[in-house]
Fold this sequence. Notes:
2 copies of one chain form a homodimer. Chain A has helices at residues 4-20, 31-41, 43-47, 54-62, 72-95.
Amino acid sequence: AMTELEKSMESLITVFHRYAKEGGNKTTLSKKELKKLMEKELPNFLTTQKNPDTVSSIIKDLDQNKDDELDFEEFVPFVAGLTIACEKHYALHHENKGKK
Amino acid sequence: AMTELEKSMESLITVFHRYAKEGGNKTTLSKKELKKLMEKELPNFLTTQKNPDTVSSIIKDLDQNKDDELDFEEFVPFVAGLTIACEKHYALHHENKGKK
């Protein structure tokens, strides 16, 4: 059976491919596919962003090979960055039990 | 309810903290804690490594602030790298349906 960490890694792969395989290039996320992934999988993320074109700026930041699409290797740092931001929030809550 | 991607991100955080909180510094993984995490959460990873001291070399590679421990931000690239390697394997299997 898979461990919790292995399941977490596999989910990242399967979620990416669920949206990547819809349009033209089957193994990369177009802007449209990334937007759909974020709306479905990170429902609160886009709504909290002031920049209406957050998705384009995300692709611009992460798209190393300049094909206007994100392959898995370009997508992972996005999720990693979000997870690191969430962890800071998590650590803050859990470490502050004693301190005022 | 959390989406699959959100659960995957949360698992990464909770798994890290489950092992980090055991020893001295509660929010970082010592070598011992990282080794235990890998043995429990990535059971096949260490056994397939020729280098008997894989854990030390992993810490050496990832330990930015040179405290011989991995905080969450130093740990994430390790899991990201593994996930990217797994995805290449996944993509190969799924893309090769037609091609010989």
